[in-house]
Amino acid sequence: MTEYRLLRRTNGAGGLVECSCGRGPSTQPIFARRLTGVAGAEVARLVESQRTLRGARLVPVIDIGVDPEDTPWLITEGLEGESLRWVMTSLGAAKSFIKPHEGLAIIQRVAELMEPLHQRNLVHGDICPSTIFVGTRGEVSLLDAGIAATLGAHADLGPYRSESGSLAPEQLIGPATAATDVFRLGLVLYELSIGRPLFSGLSPAHVCHTVNGWMGLPRDKVKHVPEPWLSLLVTMLSVDPRTRPSMEEVSAVLSQAASTNGWKMGDSEIAELFVRSSRGRAPYFTDASPGTLLQLTSSMPAPSRPPSGTFERTVTPTGNPPVPSARAMTPPPGAVLARVTTRKMTREALEAVRLEDVAPTEPRPPETADFRVGSQLLERGAITAAQLQQARETSARFRIALTASLQRMGVDEDALVEVQAELTNTPSVTSKRMAEVEPGLDALSLIPAELSRRAQVVPLGLKGGTQLLVAMLEPLDTEAVSALKTALGGKGLVVFRAGPRALNAARMRLYGELPALEQATSPATAAAPELATRTIEALFKLQGARGFHAQALVNTAAALAAALDVDARGVEAVRLIAQALATAGLARNRNAWDVPRLVELQELIGFATDAEPYAEALHDFPAKLPPDPQTQAIVIAFSFAAQAGEPRPAGSRLGGALNGFKTRTQLPPELLEALMKALQ
Q1: Where along the chain do its domains lie?
Q2: In 122-275, which ranges are E strands?
Q3: Which segments show compositional bias classed as Pro residues (predicted)?
């Protein structure tokens, strides 16, 4: 059993529930953290994590044990200083602030501290102002290494999560990674640059909701931040972990920035910052009182020599860890700066930068089939590296499949279908074959037009009278395949993969030539949609200026659908849905583009109508971009009108409205081009 003397509570050095300063058996200074509510198995995991971290350049853990009441305690080396959060709070109370070069110096030190951990495939898991420790002599250290990653890897917002506003989006669904550490350090850089946290709310649940909807940092939100750390900040806070820079690159960019601006970022500058923030503060380890006795039964094994290849911990004459200096293995700042600032390096140049450091790096996350589609297209020369990067960023930002993003960019459909078919082991059919297919009346009668539209399927023909050959957008869609098998009864089914454009063209050609199978049986019923459209247009005219805007909005949505290659029937459906939504807005004495929420919409036009999914998609935009062109047409047209204050701005107002809409929504270029075409 080991005895420790606890002198007093700290000012929050570290982010855990309770932290006290004290003395160890040899009177060495310590910090003691009480881990309330931790089970025995979690203590064992924590001990194992600390054994793994031993030798890294972090504040070392001296002991992990339980007191007589079976409450776990974590004992770390005691350093004289405070957390960065305490420094920021103290300066704010004194109406002072952290100078830019002081903040960048702290960020650079943290990045340098994290490099060796990431090279050994280890993460901190809880980087935030509460776990960044600023010493009295200007040293910067990291506290609580491995605690959050071990005891609270998921975002449970428990006591082992230092700050609820310092979460990365991926922590809401999984454990921390090296990219998570980069994102969390980016949050610290944002707060130092802007003066307030990026994520805040009335409760942890509200903060989680904000983090879950994070789509990336728009440049105009931090446009006053100068380069190069403007680009660095945007990339560190990217929603896609794969696009974030490494800690080594972060350190190199900040070193280059300091050199270019002639800023001093040494120990003395950080020590001066601490002096400004700590006026009237009492040192931790000068208390002469005996303190409170803490007896622990240790769970930590006896320290041993770190394994080969790990970092030995060295100590200066003052007893504090040395500040890590720039390492020779750091890539040339110019090359790294080019990557972080432009993100347009060639594959060869990027690989060269990656290979300049031969140390083992963090393993890439497992690639999904959707992710491998882009890599395969790149290898075959069907797309460029820049196109693939743009598609991946669009996919991550709007939470749509990578294949959908590539399709909207106009990638060769046959090449995309061929790659998907190979990766999923499904047969495919080319667009040329789809344009020539003549399945016959028997095959067409087995799949009604409504089923063809709903399941994204087109019959190719009957084989032997017992098997129906069909082309589908996604042969692995079990729900659609099940609906087909139910409709076919006892007949067999052979499914081929085809592209969306080829399917839409074939469906329009085949079912458009068979009015008995697709269209209504009576002329009066066939004319109903056109009559409804003209009736609503007449009602719009009675509404004066608001009705004029409503009609212009409907026309814009229909024109945008046509620009997105939606077939004639789809364009007509978009027109009808847009009229219904615009009418709902006018019925509430609002503008046509002010579509009411779902409950109000249901009160106006009834429940379970075709307009409901469009209204929901409209209210989810721009956080989520719908994948199908018809919904995109309505969502973009209505959102643009709401942003501009009118559906079709004229003259110089059009350019300003388009620029503002692009900045707010980060709309992919191909969709923005279609919108411009629809507004002409």
Answers
A1: 2-80+283-298, 81-277, 369-423, 426-519, 529-679
A2: 132-135, 140-142
A3: 319-333
Residue 56: what pLDDT? 54
Closest alpha carbon to 55 in 300, 248, 304: 304
For the cut 70, the answer to whether the pLDDT of residue 284 exceeds it is yes
Query: Does an H or E element contain 470, and which?
Result: strand 467-472
Confidence of residue 471 (pLDDT cuts 50, 70, 90): very high
Tokens matching residue 106: 């702290």
Q: Which residues lie below 8 Å from residue 411, measured CB to CB, with a gap of 6+?
A: 377, 382, 383, 387
- The verdict on pTM exceeding 0.85 is no
Confidence label for 497 from pLDDT (cuts 50, 70 and 90): very high
pLDDT digits (tens, 9 = 90+) for 504-562: 888 888 876 333 333 333 344 444 556 666 777 777 777 778 888 888 899 899 999 98
- Of the candidates 143, 139, 144, which has an alpha carbon nearest to the alpha carbon of residue 321? 139
77, β-bridge pairs: 30
167 contact partners, CB below 8 Å, separation of at least 6 = 155, 161, 184, 199, 207, 208, 211
The fold of the 81-277 domain, in CATH, is Transferase(Phosphotransferase); domain 1 (1.10.510)
At residue 356, what is the residue type? E
Looking at domain 2-80+283-298, which CATH architecture does it have?
2-Layer Sandwich (3.30)
pLDDT in tens, 309-345: 333 333 333 334 444 333 333 333 444 444 444 433 4
Q: What is the pLDDT of residues 221-251, one digit of tens each?
A: 777 777 777 888 888 998 888 889 889 888 8
Domain covering 426-519, topology: GMP Synthetase; Chain A, domain 3 (3.30.300)
Burial of 335 (0-12, 13-18, 19+ CB in 10 A): middle
Measured distance CA(351)–CA(590) in Å, rounded:
55
Q: What angle do CA 230, 234, 239 make, to 5 degrees?
A: 175
Angle at 332 between CA 331 and CA 334, to 5 degrees: 130
d(CA 518, CA 611): 22
